[in-house]
Design a protein that fits this description.
- It contains 13 helices and two strands; from the N terminus they run αααααααααββαααα.
- The chain is mainly α.
- The protein has a two-stranded antiparallel sheet.
- Strand 1 and strand 2 form a beta hairpin.
- It is globular.
Length: 331
Amino acid sequence: MGTVSAILLVFVGCCTNVVFLELLVRDFPGCGNIVTFAQFAFIALEGFIFESNFGRKKSIIPIRNYVIMVTMFFTVSVINNYALNFNIAMPLHMIFRSGSLIANMILGIIILKKRYSASKYMSVVLISAGIFICTIMSAKQVNVALNPSEEEGVYAFMRWLLGIAMLMFALLMSARMGIFQETLYKQYGKHSKEALFYNHCLPLPGFLLFSSDIYNHYIHFNQSTPVEVPAIGLTVPVMWLYLLVNVITQYVCIRGVFILTTECASLTVTLVVTLRKFLSLIISVLYFQNPFTVWHWVGTAVVFLGTLLYTEVWTSVREALRRTDAKQKKQ
């Protein structure tokens, strides 16, 4: 599969996935566990059939390394989805996760002893400032929207702070997983389909810890409004239809990202993911009419400006223009 096809998978899959995730969360704010379980089970089943050949194909990267990686991956996925239960708005959730560059830089300095250019540090400052602006403005909205009494307002605000802490932990854990994954790929080579399968298959037993919550939402989903599925004429509860589309689009999205990591330079992957996040944010705000003030837009712009500065897009564009001018002069 080519680079263009992978980019289309990322944009179409991820943006559609965000829409249906928010549809699920709006009706059942605590459904993060059943959504995550459904995504993992679907991708693991597909990988078990088509990648591992029903368990007969031996993994290239040793299983013990996958166990470490999927423990971190499972933790990040569950915490990111579970944070939505703590008064975290979807736009803030997406903006906060855009701070992955900050976490990567911090852990790169601490663990890998890396040093970065002045432009990299400046980009981190911009991203930090953007997230800080959006976080402060969302905190004010929590106090205004969820403050019928002083005691309940304090409780809602404390839940929101806990949600922010969960997002910060998931951000750092995701960066640590990226460093570990980078080390494995250097040693054993890149195997996107295999990594995709094991990252979603091995964590499945961990969902036993959330079995009661998953079962409760299974009951709630069954009791949701029935709708007729177009083309086949089958009537199903609407939440199951939303979940099915969410699971399929999540597979398309993450498959595209894994393909990009093997076919493209890190600059291209980061840029594509950044633009996808921005488009998802715009769709979430406009389609669902989420509260988004001028300061939120300022913070968002600063976050993505910093991300583009980090990826050195401007330098690459200037170099490409110079090469084009040089070719034209030669002609």
